[in-house]
Amino acid sequence: MRVEEAHAAAAAAAAAAAADTAALLYDCPFCADSWEQAAAAAAVAAAAIQREQQAAAAAKFLADHYSAASFYSFPLEEIYQQQNYGWLRQQQQQQQQQQQQQRQQQQQQPQVPLWLLQQHERQVPMQAGVTETEEIRAEAAAEAAAEAVAEAAAEAAAEAAAEAAAEQTAEAAAERAEEIEAEAAAEAAAEAAAEAAVAAEEAVEEAEAAAEAATKAAADAAAQAQAQAAAQVQAQAAAEAAAEAAAERAAEAAAAAAAAAYEDSYKWGDKSKQQTNRRLLQAPGSIEQQQQQQQQAAAAAAAAAAANAVAQVHLNTVNMLQEQQQQKTAAAAAAAAAAGFPHILIGVVLDDGSIWGIDDLRGGRRAARQQQQQQQQQRLLLQQQQQQNNLLPEP
C-alpha cells in the first residue's frame, strides 16, 4: 500500500498549498489579477484530490482481491486513465449543467455595466475585508476556471471520442474491405464454377453427339456391309450354280461323246475283226481284202485319235479354267489378308466379274467337286485310249 499512500500524501499536500494560496489571494483586495490563477490552481488541486481518491479506491480493491505479485503486475495506468476519463465526463456534465443554470440566471437578472461596478466599489465601504466587486471577480474567476477545465475536459473527451471513432471507422472499413474481397472471391469462384459446369455440359453434349454419329455411321456401315454381303453371297451362289451346271453339262456331254465314240469304235472294231477273220477264212490270200481291212483299221484309228484329241482339248480347257479360278482365289485371299479383314468379308466381285468367298478361301466344296470331275474325266480318257489301242490291228 505504499503506492497509494504516496499518492494520497502528494494530493493532500497539493490541496493544502492550493488552499493556502487561494486564502491569501482572496484576503488581499489588491490581488484581483492573481485570483483567477488561484481559482484555477484550486480547481486543479480538487481534481487531483478526486483522482487520487479514485486511484486509492482502485488500489484498495485490487489489494483486497489480488495478491501482492499480481497487484504490482496489474496495469494501474490503464485503470487510472479509465477512472480519470469517467471523472472528466462527470465533471463535464456538471459544468454544462452549471453553465446552463448561470446563463438562465444571467438572462433573468439585468447586466451591470463595468463603470457602475467601479463606482459602487468606491462608494461601498469595506465589510470584513471583502467588497462586492471582489466577490463578483471571484465568481467570474471561478467561472473562468470551470470553463477552462470544462474546455480541457471536453477537448480530451472529444479527442478520445475522435480516436475511438477513427479506430472503429478504420476497423469497420477493414472489415468491410475484407467482406468485399471475400464476396468478390466468392463471386469469382462461382463464375468459374459456372463456366466449368457449362464447359462440362458442352463437352458431354459434343461427346454424346459424336457417339450418336459414330453409332449411326457404324449401323449404316454394318447395314451396307450386310447388304453387300448378301448380294455377294447371292451372286456367288448364282455363279457357283451356273458354273456347276455348265461343268456338269460339259462333263455329261464329254462323257456321252466319249461313250458314243467308244461304243462306235468298239462295235466297228469287233465288226471289222469278224469280217476280216471271215474274209481271211474265205480267201486267205486275197490282197484286196487285206488292203480294205487296213484302210478300215486306219480310219478307225483316225476316228479314235480324233476323239482322243477332242477329249484332251476339253480336259485342257477344264484344267485352264480351274487354274485361273485358283489364281483368282489366291489373289483375292492375299488381298484380303493384306487388308486385315479376311474374317469379315463374305464374298468379293473381281474385275472380270468372277466371285470368290469363304469357300474359295478355305478350298471349299467347289474346288473339291471340280477336282473330282477332272480326275474322273482323266480316268475316262485313259480308259478310252487303252481301249482304242487294243482295237488297233497289229502290223
From TrEMBL:
<feature type="compositionally biased region" description="Low complexity">
    <location>
        <begin position="369"/>
        <end position="395"/>
    </location>
</feature>
<feature type="compositionally biased region" description="Low complexity">
    <location>
        <begin position="160"/>
        <end position="172"/>
    </location>
</feature>
<feature type="region of interest" description="Disordered">
    <location>
        <begin position="160"/>
        <end position="188"/>
    </location>
</feature>
<feature type="region of interest" description="Disordered">
    <location>
        <begin position="366"/>
        <end position="395"/>
    </location>
</feature>
<protein>
    <submittedName>
        <fullName>Uncharacterized protein</fullName>
    </submittedName>
</protein>
